[in-house]
Specification:
Elements (H helix, E strand, L loop, with lengths): L1 H15 L16 E2 L7 E3 L3 H17 L6 E2 L1 H17 L1 E2 L9 H7 L4 E11 L3 H10 L1 H7 L6 E8 L6 E10 L1
Parallel strand pairs: 3-6
Antiparallel strand pairs: 1-4, 2-6, 5-7, 6-7
Helix pairs in contact: 2-5, 5-6
Length: 176
């Protein structure tokens, strides 16, 4: 029963990442969802393996659509990891960072020169493969995965204050 509740909550949080704002949401961040209480988070440094696995899963979806693959990018992985950590500390799944308005600003601050940047986020009891599967199965998230110009990819992960809620961010970008 506990697993079913966590799965339902996680799917609701994942759907909310693409949902229209509701009247009960903070107007300064209309798409954000409070997933857990703010507090100490466990921030994870993205391994080369995780970044490669993420790019490979993304490339399967892109190949089905006849698109070129993306390559793992360490700068985008750092931006994604820092954003996942920021979300986990705030307990809030959102594209807005504490000190940035979105993924484009975050990757620029790290020295990446994007022509185009997109981001998928998730919060729930998801491991890496489950987060990637959910994004590749959701039409709204798949829209980001399948932007034809994208060439680089990075993924980040952190665990919320409850020790159970995993925050994920994937950044897709096309360099100038």
């Amino acid at each position: 029963m506990q697993t079913a509740r966590h799965t339902i909550l996680a799917l609701c949080l994942l759907a909310a990442a693409c949902a229209a704002p509701s009247s009960g949401v903070d107007r300064s961040d209309p798409h954000g969802v409070q997933a857990v209480a703010a507090g100490d988070a466990r921030c994870v440094v993205t391994s080369e393996t995780s970044n490669r696995v993420g790019a490979e899963a993304t490339n399967i979806a892109r190949a089905r659509a006849g698109l070129p693959g993306v390559r793992p990018n360490a700068v985008l992985a750092r931006a994604a990891a820092e954003h996942a950590c920021d979300m986990a500390k705030r307990g809030r799944m959102t594209h807005n960072g504490s000190s940035s308005s979105g993924p484009g600003a975050r990757v620029k601050a790290l020295g990446y020169r994007p022509m185009l940047t997109a981001e998928n986020i998730a919060a729930g009891p998801f491991d890496l493969n489950r987060a990637l599967h959910e994004w590749n199965s959701s039409s709204k998230h798949l829209d980001n995965v399948l932007i034809p110009q994208m060439r680089d990819f990075g993924i980040g992960h952190a665990i919320g204050s409850d020790g159970k809620t995993h925050f994920w961010a994937a950044v897709y970008s096309a360099p100038r």
